[in-house]
Amino acid sequence: MYFDESAWVALGFVIFIAIIWRKAGSALATLLDNRAQKIKDELSEAENLRNEAEAELTKFKALQDEAIEDAKRIVADAHVAADRIRHTAVEKAEESIKRREAQAKAKIAAAEAAVVTELRTKATSLAISASKGLLASELDTELGASMIDKSLTQIAATKL
Fold it and tell me: Contact at 8 Å (CB) between 18 and 10?
């Protein structure tokens, strides 16, 4: 069999590639295996981080739910306190109104009593003045003396 030059070049090229493939192939395989292992490690680490993140998310959701419940309880307590404060304020206002009404009624009663007393005093003064004027104009000495005696007798009778 006769080989021409292109066959020898092709055969040399194939042998060269086979030698290179043997030497570089194991290095390339090692490189690719290392790369694959690195990717597997990164994927494993990413999976672990994802699991940790899910656990943290679950924990934070639980904390959020707890905070929401606390907020609802605080709002409910605030409503109860506001109702209690409003009720107390209404009671105090009603008591204050009743007290002021009683004070006003007492002042009115005192003013009425003062007016009645003043009117009685004036009526008495007017009656006395009128009586003096009437007695002075129509009363003579004898009639006056008899009235005084009669009054003294009545006074003495009431003392006994």
Answer: no
